[in-house]
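Request from the bench team (R.T.):
"We need a structural guess for the complex before ordering more zinc ion. Sequence and SMILES attached. Just send the tokens back."

Command: build protein-zinc ion structure.
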Amino acid sequence: MNKKLLEKSRQKLEKEKVTIEKELKKFAKKDKKLKGDWDTRFPKWDGSEVGSAALEKAADEVEEYGTLLPIEYNLELKLKNIDLALEKIKRDKYGTCEKCGKEIDKKRLEVCPEARFCLKCKK
Ligand SMILES: [Zn+2]
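Reply to R.T.: structure attached below.
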């Protein structure tokens, strides 16, 4: 694995991790019991956020909750993959497919640094 690419990926991953955590904190809170798990606040948002434009537009809180859940799920999943990728960097396993063990295409890693599988195995 190319050191330069490895370092680039690591920086990208850590930056993305911060961004995602910030995004999640807007509408969800960290689950204290389950590491890496987030809960979307329901039904009322945190008091500090009441009156935000986003909330005002939401005519129905239940509907809003239903909209946020898949977003939360996606962000959470991405966060988990980022953590896994960072872990792989530490263990010197970064860039290899978790299924077939082959190297993941560098172009793919540049676009998606948290990729766990090569394109073949992802299908
Ligand atoms: Zn593979």
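Two things stood out. Residues 49 and 55 are 8 Å apart (CA to CA). The first strand starts at residue 28 and ends at 30.
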